[in-house]
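Posting for a labmate who doesn't have an account.
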Amino acid sequence: MPKLNARQRFAANLKEQRLAKGLSQEDLADLCGLHRTYVGSVERGERNISIDNMERLAQSLEVPLEKLIREGKS
């Protein structure tokens, strides 16, 4: 399996954490003040997301930012 780059890792970990919390993309977007389509594009790895928005998403999920960029299982 090829190694994921940082954007792909963040996207996969974000989705994993969102689903573990039982949140929809829309729920997460509402919690952090971002648009649902933006959250979806981040989860698909299509966005070069800013550090500020990474932090907003992590805080909304109540997980440390490091958990969303970590390699391997979150």
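Reply:
Got it, the structure tokens are right above this. The chain has one domain: 6-64.
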